[in-house]
Please model this.
Amino acid sequence: MNAGLFCLATIGPALNLQACSGIQARESAPLTAPNLVRVGMPESLIREARSIFVYDERGHFGTKTQYNSASMNTGGGSLVVHCRDGVCFGVEVKYDENGVKRSDAVALMRQLLSIGDAAPVEHDDADITKNDAKRRAEFFYFEKDSAKTEPGAGSTGGSPAASALQGQPDVGLRGELYYAAAPSNRVNQIAVWYE
Model:
């Protein structure tokens, strides 16, 4: 059993997380591909998947740790997984300049957050400047109750986000899409977070 404060994103086998003073994550089957990580997943599953994720010591601050995928996901993106206190709280998926279609990016964002087809409570479009280049970004905010129970193969319960958010009144889920430099309409970065 790993205990910690819940964070964000998981993609594969479902985990049973319960809110207490912290979060307890019951481990399930080991990770076999980058697509199997989700917000709420115990860090131990990521750490033990040495052929899939590599510990990044530059991303270690206090109780926060970071892992980079050793291979691409099925869409050709590389993953950066953020953990704190033993639980995954964020996932970033980065693509080359060609990116992916918006519909594919939204589908992956929803999968990482385990929110199904829940409508966002807020949606913002923005033009941001990063490294002196203007980019379009979209921000989606979901209520914590948006996280659905999605048992998977070998699952021990509902989605990590749904279980971990129980009893956490001021917590929400955020998804971010960043587009390649204008005039592109393709997404080259997806980020999901537990707030």
